[in-house]
Amino acid sequence: MKISQKLISGILGIATLSGIIGAISAHQQLEIAKYLAQQEAEEVAGLLGYFVSHEFEDHKMRSRNEMLAHLQEHVESLHKQRQRDLEIVDRNKIILADVVTEDIGTRLNRDRNNEVGKTIEDGITRTYIETSTEYPNGIKLIAVAFKTSKNETIGAVILEYTPLYQAALATAYKNILVTSVISLGCGIFALTAGYLISITISKPIKQLQQAVMNLAEGKLNTRVSIRSHDEIGELATSFNKMADDLQSSRDDLVNANEQLRDEITERQLAEAELQQALKDLKKNQIQLIQSEKMSSLGQLVAGVAHEINNPVNFIYGNLQHTDDYTQQLLLLIKLYQNYYPNPEPEIKNANEEADK
After folding, report:
1. What are the percentages of helix, strand and coil residues in the chain, rounded to 5?
2. What's the CA gap between 46 and 142, in Å, rounded?
3. Environment class of residue 308 by beta-carbon count within 10 Å: exposed (0-12), middle (13-18) or buried (19+)?
4. Could you please report the per-residue DSSP string of 252-312?
5. Whole-angstrom Cα distance, residue 181 to residue 196?
6. Beta bridge partners of 87
7. CA–CA separation, 123 and 35 (whole Å)
8. Are residues 53 and 146 in contact, defined by beta-carbon separation less than 8 angstroms?
9. Cα(285)–Cα(290) distance, rounded to whole angstroms?
10. Count of CB atoms situated within 10 Å of the CB of 164
11. Cα separation values, 92 from 47, 121, 154, Å
C-alpha cells in the first residue's frame, strides 16, 4: 500500500472513530436527557408526595374534605402551570386528587402492570408508559410513594413527565445535531487535509523514486528540485549529494580506467620488448654455451695431446738407447749360448718360453 493510501486510510479511520465516538456521545446525551427528565419528574413528584404526606398527618386539624379540596387545588394549579397530568391515590389506589375531577373517588384502573401497586407496596419509585385511545403513542408516567413521618406508605403520586421528557430530548437532539455537524465538518476537514497532505508527501516521494530509478539506470546527472524544509527536503538534499558523489566517483573511476589502460598498453609493449630480449638472451646463451663447449673441447684435446706427446717424446727419445741396449743384450746372449751350450734346466726352460 502506498504512503498516500496509508495516510488517507489512517485519517479515514480517525474520522470513522470520531464518528463512532460522536454516535456514542449522542447516545449518552440521549440517555442523560432521559435520566435528567426522570430525575426532575421524580423530584417534583417527591416534593408533591411530601406535601401530601404532610396534609394527611395534619388532617385532624381540619376535615378530610377540606384536605382533599386543598390537594385538588394544588393539582389543578400544577396542571395549569406545567400542563401535566397528575393523580394522587391512597394505599388502596383510590384517586384522591386528579386533573379529571370525575375520576376522584374512583379506583385507579389504568395500572395494567400494577406499577403503582408495586410502588405502594415496596416504596420504590417506578416509571412506565401508559397507552390509551387518547394517547396511542403512550405517555410517560412516574409513580412515587409518599410516607408518613413513621415511614409508613399511605399512597402514591402519579405524575406525567412526557413534556419534560420531550423537552429534554429536543435539547439533546439539538446538541446531537450540533455535535454531528461538527463531527462531519471535522471529518471532511480531516479527509481534505489528509488528501492535501498525502499529495504534498507522495509527490516529492514519487519524484525521489523516479530519480532513484534514473540513477539506477546510470543517469548520474539526475537531480531532484525539492525545496521543502522538512525531512523530505533533507532526504532530497542527501540524494543530490549522493548523486554528486556518485558522479564524481564515476569520473574518477573513468580516469583511473584510462590510466590503467595506458599502463596496460605500456606494460604490453614492455613485455613484448622483454620477450624479444629474452629470445636474444637465449640465443646468445646457446651461442655462448656452444663456444664454451668448443673451447673446452679444444682445451681437452690440447691436454690429451700434451699428455700423449710427453710419453711419446720420452719413448721416442729413448728408442735409440733401447735399441743399443737391446743389441748389446742380444750379443751377450749369443756369446753366452756359444760359450755355454748346455745351460741349466731353468735357463733352458726360460729360453724355450721366450721362443714361444
Report:
1. 75, 10, 15
2. 10
3. exposed
4. HHHHHHHHHHHHHHHHHHHHHHHHHHHHHHHHHHHHHHHHHHHHHHHHHHHHHHHHHHHHH
5. 22
6. 98, 158
7. 20
8. yes
9. 8
10. 21
11. 21, 10, 9
The cell 400542563 sits on which residue? 83
C-alpha cell, 132: 390509551
Cell of 255: 580516469
- pLDDT tens for each residue of 263-283: 898 888 888 888 888 888 888
Helix (H) or strand (E) holding 12: helix 3-57
Element (H, E) at 49: helix 3-57
Burial of 314 (0-12, 13-18, 19+ CB in 10 A): exposed
Return d(Cα 110, Cα 95) in angstroms, integer. Answer: 11
Helix/strand number for the chain, H first, E second? 6, 5
- Residues 84, 96: Cα–Cα separation, whole Å: 17
* pLDDT tens track for 226-252: 777 777 777 778 878 888 888 888 888
